[in-house]
Structures are given as structure tokens and as C-alpha cells.
Amino acid sequence: MIAPLVTLAAAALTVTVASAQNLDAGKPAAKLFADGCATCHRSPRGLAKGRFSLTLAWFLKDHYATSSDSAKALAAYLVSVDEPPPRAAAKSGKPAKSAPRPPKAVQSQ
User: Helix or strand or coil: residue 17?
Assistant: First the structure.
């Protein structure tokens, strides 16, 4: 009679102790970056490198974030501050400033 009660009490205690709290829940993405990423990365700019937010979130969830929600928020933040690729700046309407090439030499036979 006492053995089932002891087992039930031990199971209840284990479930209570095993449930952990997500300390990153509800934090803004900039704070997540400052707390977890700024140690190695000076700035969030350029870290997304033109990746899709979804694939970046998967990567962050697998390697750095504590939950899928914090990974999604961090990925969206990194994409929002990502610098455009160098070629996109040249296509913005301004002509590229490059030196004209000399004509090819004609070879006689």
C-alpha cells in the first residue's frame, strides 16, 4: 500500500523538477542577440547573408536558440538588419564607375 504512494510522490516530484523555464521567452530579438551572439559577433549586420528567414531560424534552433520561437524572432531580426549584397547597391539606379577597357588587339595572319 505504501509502495504505490511513494512511487506516485516520486513521479510527481520528478515532473515538477523536470519542467524548466525558458529564460529567453518574451525577450526582444535585439536583446537575444546581445545576450547570446554579441560575444562573438560585434554587429548583427551581415550575419543573415541573404538567407531566407525560415532556413536561418532552423539553423539557429539547431545550434544556438533555446526554442523555436526565439530562433524565429532572432532570424527575423538578423534578416531585417542584413546589408544588401554589393551588386544590389550597383543596381539601385546609379551607373557603376569603372574604367573603360581598351580595345582588343587585332591579330594579323
Answer: helix
